[in-house]
Amino acid sequence: MNVKQKTIKSEVSVHGVGLHTGASVTLTFCPAPENHGFKFQRTDLPGQPIIDADCDNVTDTARGTTITQNGASISTVEHVMASLVGMDLDNILMKLDGPETPIMDGSAILFVEALESVGLVQQSIDREYFQIPHNITYTDAERKVEIVAMPLEDYRFTCMIDYNSPVLGSQHAVISTIAEFKSAIASCRTFCFLHELEYQLQNNLIKGGDLNNAIVIVDKEVTRDELDHLAKIFNREKIEVAPQGILNNMELRYQNEPARHKLLDMIGDLALVGMHIKGHIMAARPGHAANIAFAKKIKAAIKKEKNKKVQHVYDPSVKPLYDVMQIMDILPHRQPFLFIDKILELSKTHVVGVKNVTMNEEFFKGHFPGAPVLPGVIQIEAMAQTGGVLVLSTVPDPRNYLTYFLKIDKVRFRAQVLPGDTIVFRCDLMEPIRRGIAQMKGVGMVGEKIVVEAEMMAQISKVKDSERVS
């Protein structure tokens, strides 16, 4: 059964201060259309720039996760992002009138409750999942970090933390499905060690920090004078060390609340992959830097799997949609400059074409004759001719039109193409054709290997009498 995308029914806002900046901020969750994804918007800046919630936009992981795009940044996004995934959402625009999300109580529960208060709405388009195809691993030997994603039909997390602290000890947290997020993870608050708190206070790094939004673990001997000094800073009558080895500003919600919060952070950071995941994530000693590095590995795997789908369309035993004679009814090119032999698929938005590379082609006589390699410009031209079939299929009389290049961008040649190879090209429209202008993303595959990719812009033009091909 296909799962539909979801957004919220109406806008809802939360108010608070940023943990590190201390700035008062309002965060407004807004409904968004299908395939919008998660995006932030800085409403306090000129032009109100949009920032995609994407791991490729992460610019800092020192004391939280910061994303930057279009000249604007948003800090400490992990708790907000975790709430969106935990609420099973797909499309949300988050408007912020400051540089950092509000820390609230140090967990994600207040974001979850705000989203629940307005309700969710099912949208018309199916959700796309990335199903972990095989074990994906990340290690950082220096920090003793190990993370692995394994295939599973659900989204499951196992997290272990170990700070070599006699107070905190080694802790584990587990959820067997993301549906347990609200009940088991969302309310778990951030934590820090007392020595970290003192350093951050001395260096003015947590201007919005308060004993109401963090668990403080006492990892050293502390004097009465030090406790009194902290009480004065945080405007408390008295602060003590509780039997659990934490400051008595709050009661633990779970015995393993720190491990559960680390799991919350992971869910939020991995949300920056940009797609719902099916898999089992197991992590030992994770942190924001490791989480983001791991998210990038998953995103690379997503790209690889998508590219694999392109080459699977070629089956030599299947009759082509168009053979070379039918292609010549659409394209004006002729031998020796017709580089497409078959069209396998054609829709309103994509086309798949085939070029068989043979040694008897004219250009091999002069292009590295001792070590023949298909010229890159020929690969691009063949890709363009494949795209030309797509573009010309949008007009009723393709023989009376030509397509001209306006731009070729982001060209990458990934592997050599040799005589005997068969290249399968796929071109997809990047946006609808407007005013005769077509923008396409093209990928060329030999077997399971990408050999070339590019973005192309072309214009459809009516054939003049002097240009007409008989």
UniProtKB/TrEMBL annotation:
<feature type="binding site">
    <location>
        <position position="261"/>
    </location>
    <ligand>
        <name>Zn(2+)</name>
    </ligand>
</feature>
<dbReference type="InterPro" id="IPR011334">
    <property type="entry name" value="UDP-acyl_GlcNac_deAcase_C"/>
</dbReference>
<keyword id="KW-0862">Zinc</keyword>
<dbReference type="Pfam" id="PF07977">
    <property type="entry name" value="FabA"/>
</dbReference>
<dbReference type="GO" id="GO:0103117">
    <property type="term" value="F:UDP-3-O-acyl-N-acetylglucosamine deacetylase activity"/>
</dbReference>
<dbReference type="GO" id="GO:0009245">
    <property type="term" value="P:lipid A biosynthetic process"/>
</dbReference>
<protein>
    <recommendedName>
        <fullName>Multifunctional fusion protein</fullName>
        <ecNumber>4.2.1.59</ecNumber>
        <ecNumber>3.5.1.108</ecNumber>
    </recommendedName>
</protein>
<keyword id="KW-0479">Metal-binding</keyword>
<dbReference type="InterPro" id="IPR004463">
    <property type="entry name" value="UDP-acyl_GlcNac_deAcase"/>
</dbReference>
<dbReference type="GO" id="GO:0046872">
    <property type="term" value="F:metal ion binding"/>
</dbReference>
<dbReference type="GO" id="GO:0005737">
    <property type="term" value="C:cytoplasm"/>
</dbReference>
<comment type="pathway">
    <text>Glycolipid biosynthesis; lipid IV(A) biosynthesis; lipid IV(A) from (3R)-3-hydroxytetradecanoyl-[acyl-carrier-protein] and UDP-N-acetyl-alpha-D-glucosamine: step 2/6.</text>
</comment>
<keyword id="KW-0441">Lipid A biosynthesis</keyword>
<dbReference type="InterPro" id="IPR029069">
    <property type="entry name" value="HotDog_dom_sf"/>
</dbReference>
<dbReference type="GO" id="GO:0016020">
    <property type="term" value="C:membrane"/>
</dbReference>
<keyword id="KW-0963">Cytoplasm</keyword>
<comment type="similarity">
    <text>Belongs to the LpxC family.</text>
</comment>
<comment type="function">
    <text>Catalyzes the hydrolysis of UDP-3-O-myristoyl-N-acetylglucosamine to form UDP-3-O-myristoylglucosamine and acetate, the committed step in lipid A biosynthesis.</text>
</comment>
<dbReference type="InterPro" id="IPR020568">
    <property type="entry name" value="Ribosomal_Su5_D2-typ_SF"/>
</dbReference>
<dbReference type="InterPro" id="IPR015870">
    <property type="entry name" value="UDP-acyl_N-AcGlcN_deAcase_N"/>
</dbReference>
<dbReference type="InterPro" id="IPR013114">
    <property type="entry name" value="FabA_FabZ"/>
</dbReference>
<feature type="binding site">
    <location>
        <position position="265"/>
    </location>
    <ligand>
        <name>Zn(2+)</name>
    </ligand>
</feature>
<dbReference type="GO" id="GO:0019171">
    <property type="term" value="F:(3R)-hydroxyacyl-[acyl-carrier-protein] dehydratase activity"/>
</dbReference>
<comment type="function">
    <text>Involved in unsaturated fatty acids biosynthesis. Catalyzes the dehydration of short chain beta-hydroxyacyl-ACPs and long chain saturated and unsaturated beta-hydroxyacyl-ACPs.</text>
</comment>
<keyword id="KW-0444">Lipid biosynthesis</keyword>
<dbReference type="Pfam" id="PF03331">
    <property type="entry name" value="LpxC"/>
</dbReference>
<keyword id="KW-0378">Hydrolase</keyword>
<keyword id="KW-0443">Lipid metabolism</keyword>
<feature type="binding site">
    <location>
        <position position="79"/>
    </location>
    <ligand>
        <name>Zn(2+)</name>
    </ligand>
</feature>
<comment type="similarity">
    <text>In the N-terminal section; belongs to the LpxC family.</text>
</comment>
<dbReference type="GO" id="GO:0006633">
    <property type="term" value="P:fatty acid biosynthetic process"/>
</dbReference>
<dbReference type="InterPro" id="IPR010084">
    <property type="entry name" value="FabZ"/>
</dbReference>
<feature type="active site" description="Proton donor">
    <location>
        <position position="288"/>
    </location>
</feature>
<feature type="active site">
    <location>
        <position position="367"/>
    </location>
</feature>
<keyword id="KW-0456">Lyase</keyword>
